[in-house]
Amino acid sequence: MSLIRRVFAVGLMAILSAGVLAEEGGAALDTMAADHTNKESLQRGATLFTNYCMACHSLEYARYKRVADDLGIPSDIYKENLIFTGAEIGELMKNSMNPEQAANWFGNAPPDLTLESRLRGDDWIYSYLRGFYKDESRPMGINNVVFPNVGMPHVLLQLQGLCAVEPAIGHRESVDPLSGNIKNQDVCTKWASKGSMTAAEYDSAIYDLTNFLSYMGDPIKVERERLGMFVLIFIAIFFIFAYLLNREYWKDVH
Fold it and tell me: What is the H or E stretch that residue 143 is in?
């Protein structure tokens, strides 16, 4: 019993410590629910990633052909519209950026993003891409509430615009009891420059982009969950026969 209590105590301490670290480390995040069955969203996300992210960030653990097939995009259309490096449809999704030059430009070479959602989480990516704001103290004039002092430029600036104050990431909407106004309805309350999208349109675009990166981190999630249901049904049926067989074997044992 002492061993069991000891193991239980260690496990409880680990859970509580993880909770404390989660509260103390990192900024509050907005939430999003990825949907890998929404192929239209994934297609839009793939387009955004290719046009705005892939010049710096690769997806070198995935192949164009697999992505095209999963997203329901014919290979010839994918190659014509979403491959700009001259690569063939069966190749890995690499870019042509030189890592050493990138390190000189940004301080660190931009990371591969194939497994970024597994590392950071979907909520982190969704919040980070909506968390840029103007900060003249930084070399590029921008900062991020989710990743302070980030070296990455705001590549989606022309779409979102640039917030003049820190965006209200991780703050839920609430009603002011005195005025009746809704607080934190918009992520940004004051703009240094406007983008081509409205706030709602940009949030929708970032959802699509995050959804695509979530798919990249776990491309077989839908198939895995579908097969998992069949496995559970098989186990349930097998259990019935195993129970009946066991009872038949032991019915004459006294």
Answer: strand 142-144
Structure tokens at 187: 């992520």
What are the φ/ψ torsions at residue 86 (nearest 5 degrees)?
85, 5
Kindly report, residue by residue over 138-180, the tens digit of the pLDDT.
988 999 999 999 888 999 999 999 999 999 998 766 555 555 4
Say how far apart CA 30 and CA 169 lie, in whole Å.
6
User: Dihedral sign, CA of 108, 54, 160, 205?
Assistant: negative
Our separate counts of H helices and E strands in the chain read 10, 8
Q: Give the C-alpha separation, 201 to 211, whole Å.
A: 15
* Residue whose tokens read 């960030």: 57
- Give the contacts of 196 (CB within 8 A, at least 6 positions apart): 158, 159
Label the pairing between strands 92-93 and 161-163: unpaired
